[in-house]
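re: ur question from earlier - yeah i can do the single chain one, its not a big deal. heres the input i used so u can compare w yours
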Amino acid sequence: MDISIVGTGRAGTSFARALRDAGHHVQLFSHDAIGDLTSSDLVLLCVPDDEIATTAERLAPSDRYVVAHVAGSRTLAELAPHRRVASIHPLAALSDAVVGPGRLRGAVYCIAGDPVAKNIVDSLGGRAIMLSDDQRSIYHATATVAANHVVALMGQVERLAAAAGLDLADFLPLAGQALEDVRRVGVAKALTGPASRGDMATIDAHLAAIDEGERSTYVAMANAAFELSEHRPSPTRA
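and the output i got, formated as tokens:
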């Protein structure tokens, strides 16, 4: 397939390499220097969400190619006035163009619109899911919590570790074990720590020890842990 990608950031460069590796012919353009699209089967917009509509308006409508975006929360309405449209959003953290292409291969994709979207996912060895427009915001919110909020939480771990004279790296194996337990036994059974056993004395000691600016996040997550612990299945007794 002949694919033109508009956008040279992390998403655009990651898609370009992954799609080339999958056997497609790929052209990569900056959003302000879009070249000849006449041979394209697909024009993939990898631009910031707020620039999708304006970038789409700059493209000449054509029945030859499909215009698609990779935004998780935006609908196909962003791509008017084009007739053949699609969206292809990967559930993958494209932190840079080094790891991004590998993460796109075999990923889960939320797709909509023209069947070419499913063809692209299949060529990358991925799995496609389809949602209605009114589901897209909650879907994207979930993806944001799963990736961005986890990173933000590691930012707090890094700050608290520094206050104890330690490094983030000292705690990453523990975080990895917790996520592996979630994968292995599910969220409820993976929960450990003072909230899981109702140990308020320990939590109060934590709050007294940490910086005041860190307490609101700690309290919010402790409350979430308390709520989760209340819905855990009772342990099986022999």
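The chain has two domains: 2-130, 136-230. not sure if urs matches, ping me
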